[in-house]
Structures
1.
Amino acid sequence: MISYAQCWEDADVLLEALDVRPGQHCLSIASAGDNTLALLARAPAQVIAVDCNPAQIACLELRVAAYRALAHGEVLELIGSLASRRRAALYRRCRSLLGAQARAFWDARPDDIDLGVGAAGRLERYLALFRDRVLPAIHPRRRVERLLRGGTRTEREEFYDREWDTWSWRALFRVFFSRAFMALAGRERSHFRYVDGSIAAHLLARVRHACTALDPADNPYLHWILTGAHGAARPFALRAENFGTIRAHIERLQWHCLRLEELLARLHPDSLDRCNLSDVFEYMPPEQHEAALRALRRVCRPGARLAYWNLLVPRRRPESLATRLAPLVSAAAHLHARDKAFFYGSFVLEEAV
Ligand SMILES: C[S@@+](CC[C@H](N)C(=O)[O-])C[C@H]1O[C@@H](n2cnc3c(N)ncnc32)[C@H](O)[C@@H]1O
């Protein structure tokens, strides 16, 4: 089953944090593929994608085939960023470029293709339920459109406090994004094993930040959550200006359906420069996080960078690795403040020393 049909991590933050240089060697958690593809725009020598879920690898493979076989606007249609009635035909043009497993995976899911492959994950279906069933009971369409038009910071704050942040918004949001309901309908229960405190309270504070401190008008993630499509602003890999460079370097991408820890055991010491680690550490107990970081440090060259997010569980390099990894605290905090995928509690950037 697809957990994430899109990458819900801000690729602009990732690219600025990692500062990938031409010729470098990158590792990236595949997830749905968007941010892994975004790294190719910086002309690295190699991007190694890894994910333990074969459905996520199928998402990455379909995107790779789409970048090869389709024009930019057609990729947007296939993903669902633009409306389309011809997704089955677009898929047929990509199909022959897929490996046997990914082809069988997508052949068995014509409904997901019709829906737009970026809407087909468990998380995206949960967000669609919120958008279609819960949101209309609180805010009419025109108020959602008003929110997404943004404005000056003062206008955004006034609108949010006076019209959006009502008692019913907070109450229904708390129910829908409560731990029990998320575990039942959206995220897997195991994802919350290491979480303390109220998920909904954390998320409500981050929503306020995204709607007031940041401008909703240029936030593709918020647009998708509230409308089911990206607005005029798109995530990095889907922007027209990045399409050609990603496609030009697509042969430099390889992927593996493995756990990160298994892949690291196969890599040579001092072979990586940049690592996009999504928020995988959050799913691990502290001792496993420490072991994975240690294994990562072994395969990283001095000066290599590791970027990762924490949604709800604080994970950063432990003291035992203080001489091996240096946190770039202020750069990470600066990037977290303008992270358009606003729900994360923190963003971590660490450098191999
Ligand atoms: C960590 S999840 C998080 C996605 C996104 N940040 C979110 O919370 O909505 C991203 C991807 O990591 C993969 N993943 C999780 N733990 C992993 C591991 N130890 N090794 C390889 N992939 C892993 C999952 O299958 C998923 O596709």
2.
Amino acid sequence: MLTADPQFRDSAVKAVHHRFRIVGAGPTGALLALGLAQQGFSVVLHDRLSAELLLNRSRAYAITHSSRRLLLDLDLWPALLDQMEPFRALRLDDCSAHCTTWFQLRDLRPANRTSEAIGWILDHRPLMRLLLERLQASDLVELQLDDALPAEDVLANAGSREWIVAADGPRSTLRRCAEVPFWTHAYQQGCLTVKLRLTGADQHCAYELFRPEGPMAVLPLGEDRYQVVWSAPLQRCRDRAASSTSELLSALDAILPDGVNAVQLLDDPGAFPLELSLAPRLHRGALLLVGEAGHRCHPVGGQGLNLCWRDVSDLLNLTQAMGHGEIAFTSLARRYSRCRRFDLAGVLLSTDLLIRFFSNHNPLLMPFRRLALFLLKRISWIRRFSLSAMTDGPGTLLRPLPK
Ligand SMILES: Cc1cc2nc3c(=O)[nH]c(=O)nc-3n(C[C@H](O)[C@H](O)[C@H](O)COP(=O)(O)OP(=O)(O)OC[C@H]3O[C@@H](n4cnc5c(N)ncnc54)[C@H](O)[C@@H]3O)c2cc1C
């Protein structure tokens, strides 16, 4: 949709006169650069890390249907499909209320059911390798890696037809330098991530366990390999990450669902702080905030990267309209901020509410938690509604899915 429009390709000459300078070649900045180049815009993409370091992150992402559509539009999906592990069921456990419920393929909206998966797990390395290969092959992208540019210089030297995009992650120096208002709240919870081998787990199922100390996601990586994202008070995460392999495996064994056992760690565990943050406006002058430079949420439900990529998708729709002359160059930033508002607020609020509702042992909440999971289990339209909000974003509940 974003690239296959021949009329738009004809207007690419017009687009070349606009330039985008993107700071941050993580999964958000790199994908945006590729999408803009496919629309005919000239792009300079900077990162302070070298290509090798950009690839070197031991993390796996839960990919939702909104991301699938964007990757399809950018012609990346076929090349990634072999690298991803689909999951056809999502198991939700409230470990304090002792309730379990399942989401299955039939709970997806009909338009999503044909792809035969609720979601996919994609490792960081093959994703970044493909993005960097495609960027290097593009005549319209100038890649400046291993190069830390002072944010003041980037902002001061912006050309008159140039947009500056901050895709430089949660500690964005561009955002701070431009003094864009930013709200942030540090969670007491942090999270521990580790890849490991499990026995007894269903290879085509992703697990989300709500525990009093925080949620734990168990994501299938293929065969018996899984990624665990385990939330708990930050110091406890750090202590667990520093504990011996056998201690960590036993701690995991004690809380994994019955019959599932942790047998071997596949990488070094890492402990990370978590925060909820949002720039109420994603622009200031010619500066646009994209991805975690503009917002961050708790990893419950694996929303993070998908939310960042919906920024990319919405921005690309607007730049495409700008290339067609349908919207003015000067109104791009304002429209972008406005169209992202509902989705960002919806995801940030719902992930925060999930944490508050489920990360405790509060006896007063227990009946409501049981009721919520009972309704989810028994009433199919509630399951469909919840799954659609998770996989397509809350914005699509109000309008039909894009084709
Ligand atoms: C523990 C953990 C688990 C997660 N699990 C999931 C999951 O299961 N599913 C999911 O969807 N999301 C998950 N996320 C979130 C996901 O990792 C982020 O949403 C994603 O990395 C954001 O991408 P980004 O490109 O916006 O930022 P980043 O990935 O942070 O990239 C920013 C880039 O900017 C560069 N940069 C920074 N400053 C400068 C500078 N001054 N000059 C030049 N370059 C600069 C950095 O080198 C980096 O390459 C998780 C996050 C954490 C912490």
